[in-house]
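Sample intake sheet
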Amino acid sequence: MAESADMDQLMASFRKFAVHGDTKATGKELNGKNWAKLCKDCKITDGKNVSSTDVDIVFSKVKQKTSRVITFEEFQRALEDLAPKRFKGQSKEEALESIFKLVEGRGPSNVGVTKVAKVAALDRLTDASRYTGSHRERFDESGRGKGREGREDTVENTGYVGAYRDAGTYDHKTKTEK
């Protein structure tokens, strides 16, 4: 096996991938999705010798029958199973060391994650001084929103329909009729 410093780096990589995308994860167990991501991000899956199907098969082989996750020891066994397949020309020990080197110190990459919008377009669309019509009325001169005070049509719970001419005259009419 490799040195203890290498095992610490391997354990650190295992934990980084174990908690990736799961806020409740403790970092002690790795699920199948994150195992596949680890193999892809660390370039264990190369498309020729090791495919994503091979990765899934090895995961199913090393995990407990009723479990959906693997521990660090099972993770090491999974890497031992994939090492000779990934590095065909090397001996078992060299292949294992090479696959450990691929994983050590690595973390999940965020390729393809949604980027922040272009600043110029966002500034142009949120510039309140360029608003027209009724939208302009909702902002003051500095560009800050007026909130409810900036709206002309506020809801009044008087019991009358909006723009009713004789609003508030009901009590007067009933007193005069008696």
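Comment: The chain has a mean pLDDT of 83. The first helix runs from residue 4 to 19.
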